[in-house]
Design a protein that fits this description.
The protein contains 13 helices and 15 strands. The strands form 7 sheets. The protein has a 3-stranded antiparallel β-sheet with strand order 3-4-5. It has a two-stranded antiparallel ribbon with strand order 1-2. A two-stranded antiparallel ribbon has the order 6-9. It is mainly alpha-helical and 419 residues long. 54% of the residues are buried. Helix content is 47%, strand content 8%.
């Protein structure tokens, strides 16, 4: 299996980086550097949104997606033995039990500020991250984690999950009374990751089966039917809406067109899913390869480097900006495929994406990674201001230090993280 390589690639002489203890040490240092930056986001009631210099942007309040991602990050760090990480993860768990929790209707608010609920909608995207964070914290043995996980799984089961569709709905009002007609692939992708972690935390294979169901519908179905350019947006009967937000190509959650970064993220997740199954469908690994090749083939800019944010369904650039998470997910997919298949094509991509990220994204002066560059490679804030969280970049530092695993938390807990 040979990955398509666009542009000039670094030499792959010598041993693959995933075999090198020196590379593992570099990744470990980068992971700790990211967490040193991220710990500044701890505020009363959760984790705040950080600006480029690591200062909390108070006007953005406490947001569930950031609090859950940072709780997850520090739960992983607690598992590998970072001093103070468990306390920060418990801080996030407490926020999910108090500040962000809806004690009346259940579930979690999107945004709270100074005790006031600014966005009370209930989103599958954010609830998936509650499951992911609570699963990692449960595996880490943190107090209160299992209770949060149990509730989060029950809320998703009761309100979002459709046994008929084999997929999750996207958005409710506060009381879970009015269900929006929009259906999205993004929330379901993150729910796939969350369900795999939940299966590891609970031992219940129903969550692995649900992760497979999501992948079956979206990847073996819709992505394959669209030449591996996965539609992101759907009607309530799961019919693709290919023109959704054509007039808002930089929409932060629902941009128009195809997102190469999600194709790469799905590539890695299909391998995680394959690893978690006793008997895995053959298409999982094949489709992981197809998605990777489509993601880098459509996404990589052979002139300036970096992966474009979005393209249309013919592969033409829609938004040429480079978002940090897209590069991080490219690293994750390339590293996982490289260690799984031993193919030098994936090793080239792994090195090329790290080299590009070191040069263009990793901020040695102010910390973390620049979250967005414009089409000319200059720092930008057209989609996202600041550096809200470290979730994607942190996971990029783990793929070469672990074998293919069902979840990062389980791999670390089982002692598979290379020093």
């Amino acid at each position: 299996m040979t990955a398509y390589l666009a542009g000039r690639a670094p030499d792959t002489g010598g041993r693959p980086w995933y075999e090198l203890s020196t590379h593992h040490r570099w990744l470990a240092v980068e992971a700790e550097r990211l967490l040193d930056f991220g710990k500044n986001s701890a505020v009363p009631g959760g984790f705040g949104w950080l600006d480029d210099g690591g200062m909390v942007m108070a006007d953005r309040g406490v947001q569930s997606w950031i609090t859950t991602r940072m709780t997850y990050a520090f739960s992983l760090a607690a598992l590998w033995g970072r001093p103070g990480a468990a306390d920060l993860a418990r801080h996030g768990l407490e926020a999910l039990q108090t500040t962000l929790h809806d004690d009346v209707h259940g579930g979690w608010f999107s945004i709270v500020s100074a005790g006031e609920v600014l966005d009370d909608r209930k989103k599958a995207y954010e609830h998936a991250f509650v499951v992911l964070a609570a699963s990692a914290a449960t595996i880490a043995g943190l107090s209160g984690a299992r209770e949060v996980l149990t509730e989060a799984l029950e809320v998703i089961d009761r309100h979002f999950w459709s046994r008929t569709d084999g997929l999750a709905a996207d958005l409710y009002d506060r009381s879970f009374t009015v269900l929006d007609s929009y259906r999205g692939a993004n929330a379901n992708m993150h729910l796939t990751e969350a369900y795999l972690a939940a299966a590891d935390a609970t031992g219940d294979e129903v969550y692995t089966e649900r992760a497979l169901s999501i992948a079956e519908q979206l990847i073996n179905g819709h992505a394959q039917e669209h030449d591996w350019r996965l539609p992101e947006h759907y009607t309530d009967s799961w019919q693709p809406v290919l023109e959704h937000h054509r007039d808002q190509p930089r929409h932060p959650y629902q941009p128009f067109g195809v997102t190469p970064g999600h194709l790469l993220e799905w590539s890695r997740l299909l391998i995680c899913l394959h690893t978690s199954l006793t008997v895995a469908p053959a298409w999982l690994l094949n489709h992981a390869v197809q998605l990777f090749e489509r993601g880098v083939g459509d996404g990589w800019d052979g002139n300036l480097g970096g992966l474009r944010y979005t393209v249309d369904f013919a592969g033409k650039t829609s938004v040429a900006d480079r978002l940090h998470w897209v590069a991080a997910e490219g690293i994750g997919a390339a590293g996982t495929l490289s260690s799984l298949f031993g193919d030098p094509g994936y090793e080239r991509w792994y090195r090329q994406l790290w080299d590009w990220s070191e040069t263009h994204l990793i901020d040695r002066d102010r910390g973390s990674w620049l979250h967005e560059l414009d089409e000319a490679g200059r720092p930008s804030q057209l989609t996202w201001p600041g550096k809200p969280d470290v979730y994607h970049a942190l996971q990029a530092t783990l793929v070469a230090r672990l074998p293919a695993v069902s979840s990062f938390a389980r791999g670390i807990a089982d002692g598979q993280l290379r020093a």
